[in-house]
Design goal:
It is a single chain. By secondary structure, this protein is mainly beta. The protein has one domain (5-76): Cytochrome b5-like heme/steroid binding domain (Flavocytochrome B2, Chain A, domain 1, Roll). It has 1 helix and 6 strands. The strands form 2 sheets. Strands 1-6-3-2 form a 4-stranded mixed β-sheet. Strand 4 and strand 5 form a beta hairpin. The radius of gyration is 11 Å and the shape is globular.
């Protein structure tokens, strides 16, 4: 099954403020983090949902394996 594609504009609407869903992107994949207690209200430490976090992971205290814990729902185009 091929995942749907979303633009950066569509991703930005899932920031925890504009809609109920909270999404983030990493390395071209989009993940739904709505159910994660770490992303309540669309913010995780100094990182905001609704955007591509690929370049921000270097500042995180964890590795990219954290994305295996959340559902991949789309592709960022």
């Amino acid at each position: 099954m091929q995942l749907p594609e979303y633009t950066k504009s569509q991703l930005s609407l899932r920031n925890g403020q504009d809609r109920d869903e909270i999404w983030v992107a990493y390395k071209g994949d989009i993940f739904n983090v709505t159910e994660s207690s770490y992303w309540k209200k669309g913010m995780h430490y100094e990182h905001w949902a609704g955007q591509d976090l690929t370049n921000e992971l270097a500042d995180a205290p964890h590795a990219e394996e954290v994305f295996k814990r959340v559902k991949k729902i789309g592709i960022l185009i």
